[in-house]
Amino acid sequence: MVKGAQLYEGKAKKVFATDDPEKLIVSYKDDATAFNGLKKGTIRGKGAINNTMSNALMRLLESKGVPTHLVGELDERNTVVKRVTIIPLEVIVRNVSAGSFAKNYGVEEGIVFPAPTIEFSYKNDALADPLINEYHALALGLASAGEIETIKRYAFAVNDELKAFWAGCGVTLVDFKLEFGRLADGTVVLADEISPDTCRLWDSATGKKLDKDRFRRDLGGTEEAYREIMDRLKANMEAIK
Ligand code: UDP
Fold first, then answer.
1. Could you tell which of 198, 211, 216, 229 is best to mutate to test the pocket of ligand 1, judged by most ligand atoms within 8 Å of the CB?
2. Per-residue model confidence as pLDDT tens digits over 53-64
3. Domain at 85-240, CATH from 3.55.40.20, 3.30.470.20, 3.40.50.2300, 3.40.50.1240
4. Residue 201: which of 230, 222, 172 has the closest Cα?
5. What's the chain's average pLDDT?
6. Which of 13, 54, 96, 100 to mutate to test the pocket of ligand 1 (most atoms within 8 A of CB)?
């Protein structure tokens, strides 16, 4: 697979063309941003960790029947993915109160919900990714009603699988954000990444945060936390192969 021209540079990844028009190469960076780009920094080693972790979790999800964009890992930071058109929705699933949920509804963090929740944000940096509902997504033409149903079904299936996987690593999956895309034939697949940048992962015994909140909230030990969560995943890779 030949790495061609850079097509796009995002906050945490670069995307390159390849010699196959239906495939792209995603290259993970150590750059970190928070608060819609207002806070910037570097988490050393993050790119390699997120690349490996996201690919391992996507392989697990594929084996459970959730289609993803993953084609194959090239090296530490680079992965070949199917070309998709990203559906501009951030799909957030929560098992435990944290972050914007706790803030918006005036509750403490750490409340375990009786059932998972789902919500959508309109992926639009200029508008700071506002929360929207399904009717708004339809009105804006972001996705069809059928696509929204498919996305919800996949998102809850992802939650079931990842919650169980992380529980086996002694980690509570608090919440996470997914993005979906359309292949050329319109098939909806899971895209983007699943990593400590996009999930809240708490040590089940101590509640220690093993995710990007360490960076967002200046808690210190961010690089160590990324390494620790990666080690936990590696120790349970058998469950994935
Ligand atoms: N999240 C993300 N990208 C975003 C916003 C949220 O990956 O642009 C993830 C975040 O890491 C967390 C979940 O989605 O795991 C829920 O985030 P929340 O809505 O609580 O927002 P935050 O507190 O991060 O602003």
1. 198
2. 999 999 999 999
3. 3.30.470.20
4. 172
5. 97
6. 100
